[in-house]
Amino acid sequence: GEQRWSTQEKSINDMGISMAEANHMAEIVELGCIVCTKVHGVTSPAEIHHIVGDGKRSHFKVLPLCFHHHRGGKDKEPISRHPYKARFVEAYGTEQDLLNEVLQLIKGNS
Fold first, then answer.
1. Cis omega before residue 83 (within 30°)?
2. What pLDDT score was predicted for residue 13?
3. Which parts of the chain sit beneath pLDDT 50?
4. Residues contacting residue 81 through CB under 8 Å, at least 6 positions apart
5. pLDDT for the residue numbered 8
6. Ramachandran region, residue 54 (left: φ > 0; alpha: ψ -120 to 50; beta: rest)
7. Residue ranges of E strands in 1-110
8. What is the pLDDT of residue 15?
9. What is the reported pLDDT for 11?
10. In angstroms, rounded to a whole number, what is the distance separating the alpha carbons of residues 64 and 32?
11. What is the largest CA-CA distance in the chain?
């Protein structure tokens, strides 16, 4: 496939991110915020949220979240994942459920 990040290859390698991981994250970000899409039916610019399981971070287990849903710091709509994980999950579903939805969207786009 296309290497979307080729101009930044050196910095990606410096961060320990493979081209496959970089391309996956680029594809995820292009979807826009999964919560804005699911709850509000709008597309908004996204940043990467890593789902941490067993203390490990994977660049393949990531969610596209807008600033407000990722780290905006609000406990009311839009509820921010950081630092309000429990409220976020209660309002929007588990990170794993959201990840499954994201992966289905990616499959549909390819």
1. yes
2. 57
3. 1-3, 5-10
4. 49, 65, 69, 70, 71, 88
5. 46
6. left
7. 47-53, 56-65
8. 67
9. 53
10. 6
11. 40
